[in-house]
Amino acid sequence: MNLFDRFGDWVRGGQVWGSVFRHGVPRDRRTRAMAILSNVFLHLHPIAIRKSGIRLSFTWCMGGLTFFLFLVEVVTGVLLMFYYRPTVEYAYFDIQGLRAHVTLGLLREMHRWGAHAMIISIWLHMLRVFLTGSYKPPREFNWGVGVILLVLTLLLSFTGYLLPWDQLAMWAITVGSNMARATPLLGHEGPLASLITVGDVPLVHAGDDARFGLLAGTFVGPNALLRFYVLHCVFLPVVVTVLIAVHFWRIRKDGGVSGPL
Amino acid sequence: MTEMLSAGSSLLAADDSNAIKDAINALCAPHWFFILSCASITVFMVGYRRFTKPGFALFAVVGFTVFYALSALDSDFRSIIAKPDNVPITMMIYLVGFFVWLSFRQAAINDQNTEMGRPLSEAGSDDKVLVWPDLVYIELIALVLCMVFLTVWSVVLRAPLEQPANPSVIPNPSKAPWYFLGLQEMLVYFDPWIAGVLLPGLVIVGLIAVPFIDKNPRGNGYYTLRERPFAIGVFMFGFVILWVVLIVFGTFLRGPNWNFFGPYEFWDPHRPAALLNINLAEIFWVQWLGRGIPMEGWGPLPTFMVREAPGIVLLSFYFFVVPAILRYTIFRKLGAQMGFVRYALMSQLFLWMVFVPIKMVLRWTLNFKYFVAITEYFLNF
Lengths: 261, 381
Ligand code: HEM
Hints:
- Chain A has helices at 3-13, 15-20, 29-37, 56-59, 62-81, 91-100, 106-131, 140-162, 167-178, 210-215, 222-253; strands at residues 48-50, 197-198, 201-202.
- By secondary structure, chain A is mainly alpha-helical.
- Chain A has a domain at 19-48.
- In chain A, strands 2-3 form a two-stranded antiparallel sheet.
- Chain B contains 16 helices and 3 strands.
- In chain B, helix 10 (192-213) runs antiparallel to helix 16 (340-366) and helix 14 (309-327) crosses helix 16 (340-366).
- Strand 1 of chain A pairs antiparallel with strand 1 of chain B.
């Protein structure tokens, strides 16, 4: 036994290590099972798993990568929040400052490219789930959860797109949110909205329709920036986190990653 | 080979137009591009056992890469792909291509095995392995590779930051974020409430409904095409054509004023917008019957009902009679399996999905606008 191994054994034998990890080195069946069971993060997994389910060519680890990318977004996003103020006066220059002065300004690049990568990976994950027929019973519900996650991921990306407050951001969001004007019944240019009136007074107009609700105004301005910021940094991530928990829970409850019956 | 490459590169690098560039630009005219995409994915799926052979795949990757790289010599094309926010699109093209290949490859192998009575490659589902170490290590490696990839990408390519937002300077073209370009494309053919609200709504509802519509018990938990060709065909059409290809459309072929441009064409902001589009009512009353568009109601029917009668009849036929016909012809077995409610839902979703390309192709070829145009109530189809 060399010095290195001896040191390792000494650490693992001590009280500190033992208080954190309640099991020995995962070398046999029992301790390996314990390694999963006694760890709050790892116990998302079952203890044992179907052989075909972990073949890389089967899942492409795409769901896992989507999850990793989500974690990257959370970590870099929290760090970005230290440097960014969601007001028209500051937003653009805070982002510019990230590039110029902040030591870890690279965070912004990681956050943005990570978001793009997550969108691609979630599509590919859905493609894999579809092509392996993994939405079929008993996994119908989890497929539905996945679709909602897909929509929320796109919305996360969309709300984040506005925050740099540059031309790209402002006009992409203008194009994207213009359609809300035309929501049936709820948008002032939407079909049937003109029928909702009290006497002669139209109830749905530019100042209170669906687009107004989204942007907190009739154009992409300071209120929209604040609203998108809150949605992007608080509301959507919380909902996505909850749904990912449900998604993972259901994977196990539905019998693990699918395989031939 | 080298001579061909250098000849090709000198042709594409020259910034003036020439025969090859003109030919490619012409093939990228919307209807050709769309029809060729549909045709290639159909051919790929029909011949999936042959076309997923590694040799073909390698040929396709190398061929596409050479084409893409040579195209990058053209300054107009390069200015599109070099935009930082368009880099993910190049990645998407490669990744979608690769994973479509990978899954159909496995489907081909599985289908051949089943035909010959051999077990599936995913078989042996009772063999279990421990998650520690077998799975956690895969996850760890995936995580590390993912971080390395992301770090390199972030170091090499800066995130875009354009001029500060300015409400009075409208960029031309104004594009939505790239993942919504397919929906933005729909705005050309449909009113905003259909393009921006109804169609995305149908996509979401349709996706959630998939497991309840598809009652085929086979193909659960393994790659196959033979056992569920209809489900996979529809999904591939929706995902690859109506989502991914339309993003490619929006990125590469849509320029100022949302006009179509070939990939090697200069984005001229002064190119005149498209011709006037015409509605079915005009085609029917004016061009076919040679009389004016009806301006008055008929008995209890309001004007618009009379004016739009041809379109209303046609669309009612499409959405209500066609499903009934299909039910007793092509979908006879499927319909019986599904029952009324499921079949009704499936056929409506399916017909909407087909309605989209029908309108697109009619627009490109005949400048066709609306089947039914009840402008009085913003109800145009
Ligand atoms: C934030 C987004 C998502 C995350 C983090 C995520 C994560 C995962 C993970 C880690 C798995 C395990 C197997 C694998 O990696 O393929 C999985 C399975 C699954 N996912 Fe997702 N997913 C997401 C979105 C989606 C979407 C968009 C869909 C479908 C529309 C979906 C449907 C499913 C289904 C049905 C399974 C079970 C597959 C099986 O048992 O083979 N998920 N997901």
